[in-house]
Amino acid sequence: MVVGDHVWIQGYFGVISMMISCTRTQGMAVVSAVSLLLGSTSIAAPPVVTFDVPSAWDGGYSGSILIENPGPDAIEDWTLRFTGGAEISSLWNGVWTVDGDVNIVDAVDWNSFIPVGGSVELGFGGVGTFVANVTACTLNDRAADVLYGPGVDDSGGGDDSGGGDDSGGGDDSGDGDDSGGGDDSGDGGSGSEPTNPCPGDLDGSGGVDGGDLGLMLGSWGGEGLGDLDGSGMVDGADLGVLLGAWGACPEPSSKRVVAYYIEWGTYGRNYQPADIPWDSITHLNYAFADIDEEGRIALFDTYAAVEKNFPGDTWDQPIRGLINQINFVHKPQHPQVRTLISVGGWTLSGRFSDLALTPESRRVFAESCVDFIRLYGFDGVDIDWEYPVEGGLPSNVYRPEDGVNYTLLLAELRTQLDAAAEEDGTTYELSIAAPAGFDKVRHLECEKLGEILDFVNVMTYDLRGAWDLSHTGHHAPLFSNPEEPNSAEIVEKYTVDWALQEYLRQGVPADKLVMGVPFYGRGWGGVSSSADGGLFAPAGSVPPGSWDDGSSGATGVDDHDTSGTDRSGIVQFLQSGEYQRYWDDVSKVPYLYSPTRNGGHFISYEDAESLGHKLDYVDQHDLGGVMYWEITGDRGNTLVDLLADRILSPGTP
Questions:
Q1: Three-state SS at 87
Q2: Radius of gyration of the chain (CA)
Q3: What is the pTM of this model?
Q4: Distance between CA atoms of residues 318 and 306, nearest Å
Q5: Which of 342, 466, 582, 611 has the most other CB atoms within 10 Å of its CB?
Q6: Residue 257 — φ and ψ, nearest 5°?
Q7: How far is CA 487 from each of CA 435, 477, 481, 484, 518, rounded to the nearest angstrom?
Q8: pLDDT at site 158
Q9: What is the pLDDT of residues 123-136, one digit of tens each?
Q10: pLDDT of residue 155
Q11: How far is CA 361 from CA 83, 345, 358, 452, 563, in A?
């Protein structure tokens, strides 16, 4: 029925009776989508379980099990049961037990949730030959459709009738070997839930269409995925939300959220790949790889990187450890994230000058990087040379020509990564961690770097610290404060604003320029009390930091939030009542002061207010995003969530 510009649709579709008003275009979409559903009184499709054999040999084979969820609801805490098919000798990415002739596989923490349209892949070793006779296959006691991959001879057929009982249970405690320290139980961090920029996109396709309408109609009249307004029932109000978003979803953000993951975080910090807020980042940089005596990229901590056991790992697995967890376990579940191997850092930059010196040494290093990312599943390379020409650690080799050679090194890397990408049918990214200090930026050929690199992560932090006890200060000030008792050049140029504007002035495109923010504070001890909380006051000592011990000595570095650990961070200091927060409205950053701790404890840090100002700056100058050092420093995800909401969810205030 047509009334003005609207169409009234009334009908009875299987189990759904409804009458709605919509525009002509929306009405045609509704009719078209619903028509596709006619003839079926049960819209919810069964889960699909596909068995495959990628490789086989005399007496055994390597198998895979792909569990797919077609909807309409997410699957949580799943248990897979089946009989026949395989005589399993080992299984990974799940907890495998046997009850009589029934194989039982329970989810582990990191893959226990399967979203609509999502999947989980298990791997297993088999004895003999796989036979395509899987029967009684169920997922959470619901019959599953059984399929076979190209590596399986299924001429004998298989029974996908489902069934099976749940008497077997199964233990998912998943104890792993963590002889290096720390618990690798990996119960999966809380992550973050960025606001959905596209209400009605139920299947996660990036737009609202008939597929989403089908999912909504499949749960009509009850609870489920289509309950967009949170009323507890899928009804006409939810359909109105869906139709209102039809064809009007925003384009996804092109900006980056780059997080560094520190290899040593797996030990005392006990921050595992399952704790990473994968939905809140676009890039994860693994820190760090080393450089060997031949000028090739090399693993630094081999045990942590590829040997440490996690739940689901097997003794004969070629790659275990953090790299397996990041690139082969978690990244496939979060395909929007690209992982890069970061080479160097403060302690491992000693050989950069030598390997960048000649065409041959540059070629050897670049070739080794290509081999490395292919072997370990990375999507690119991040170079963190600290610092060309200036040196860094006293033991570092450095030369006056380092700046020019750095450009040549990155150009060689670009050439070889692009060639490898063409061969592999993919893209490989190249970035650097770039200095913020004017005395270091001056040595870089910024315009050329802007042409070579995919993006530039500027380390706009550590601009002041307790290595200078003459006075306290801000270690990541957005703007300069003329009250600081320092040289005019330091006051003016050691700021976030100056560094970013300098890269822009020298020709780095704005959309490739990524602002660095710290998930930690820098402190001074022995600071006398004053009306403004010790700002710019003399200090007497370097206080202990959150993770300092006998080997590190006192660093004055405190994580933003150490929730769930036995250490204290800035959030915990505020909660203790011993510290007062102050705000510098000129530099747009906060600081803490305690007159009783460490003889007068001053801490410069980042919080939600200062980060908000920096995100405004990113928007105003149309920069390429934000990088943070480093992911373990914000256990409560306060800063993580703010970044995701502002950068990855367009339109979020």
A1: strand
A2: 28
A3: 0.66
A4: 8
A5: 342
A6: -120, 105
A7: 20, 16, 12, 9, 24
A8: 37
A9: 887 888 888 899 88
A10: 56
A11: 56, 20, 5, 19, 45
Q: Which of 445, 439, 358 is nearest to 403 (CA)?
A: 445
CA atoms within 13 A on the CB side of 129: 7
Q: Burial level of 247, CB count in 10 A (0-12/13-18/19+)?
A: exposed
521 backbone dihedrals φ, ψ, rounded to 5°: -115, 165
Tell me which residue of 629, 645, 383 sits closest to 516, measured CA to CA: 629
Q: Would strands 142-143 and 283-291 be described as parallel, antiparallel, or unpaired? A: unpaired
What is the predicted pLDDT for the residue at 188? Answer: 34
Domains and CATH numbers, the chain: 2-42+216-244 (no CATH), 48-148 (2.60.40.290), 256-519+607-648 (3.20.20.80)
Q: Angle at Cα 316 formed by Cα 189 and Cα 337, nearest 5°?
A: 35
Of 386, 429, 502, 606, which residue is the catalytic one? 386
DSSP letter at 117?
A: T
**Taking the chain, what is the end-to-end CA distance rounded to the nearest angstrom?**
41
Sign of CA dihedral 629, 620, 444, 452: positive
State which residues of the chain have pLDDT below 70: 1-44, 154-199, 203-207, 223-225, 246-252, 650-653
Strand-pair partners of 135: 83
Dist. CA 621–CA 458, nearest whole Å: 15
Site of tokens 């693993």: 299
Q: What is the 3-state secondary structure (H, E, C) of 40-64?
A: CCCCCCCCEEEEEEEEEECCEEEEE
Q: Which amino acid is at 202?
A: L
Instruction: Identify the DSSP state of 119.
Output: E
Instruction: List the strands of the sheet with 87-92, edge to edge.
Output: 87-92, 119-127, 60-68, 48-57, 145-148
* pLDDT score, position 87: 85
Comparing CA positions, the residue from 501, 503, 497 lying closest to residue 480 is 497
Residues 93 and 259: their CA atoms lie apart, in Å, by: 25
* Neighbouring residues of 301: CB distance < 8 A, sequence distance ≥ 6: 263, 264
> Helix, strand, coil shares of the chain as percentages rounded to 5?
25, 25, 50
The two structure tokens encoding residue 233? 């029932």
CB half-sphere exposure, 540, CA atoms < 13 A: 9
Both tokens of 577, joined, read 């009542």
CA 401 to chain centre: 36
What does residue 564 show for φ and ψ, rounded to 5 degrees?
Answer: 85, 0
Strands 48-57 and 145-148: parallel
- Classify the C-alpha dihedral 396-402-407-408 as positive or negative: negative
The whole-angstrom separation of Cα 185 and Cα 193 is: 23
The DSSP code for 525 is B
Q: Which two tokens stand for residue 503?
A: 């890269």
List the structure tokens of 613.
């100002």
In the block, tokens 């009989």 appear at 83
How many Å apart are CA 257 and CA 641, to the nearest integer?
Answer: 11
Q: What type of residue sits at position 319?
A: I
Instruction: Tell me the CA distances in angstroms from 17 to 20, 26, 235, 254, 623, one per residue in order.
Output: 10, 18, 10, 42, 50
Residues whose CB is less than 8 angstroms from the CB of residue 43 and which lie 6 or more positions away in sequence, other chains included:
14, 37, 72, 214, 217, 218
3-state secondary structure at position 179: coil
Q: What is the DSSP string of 421-453?
A: HHHHTS--EEEEEE--SHHHHTTS-HHHHHHH-
Contact 327, 306 (CB under 8 A): no
CA neighbor of 603 nearest in space, from 652, 542, 646, 516: 542
Given this model, what pLDDT does residue 247 score? 59
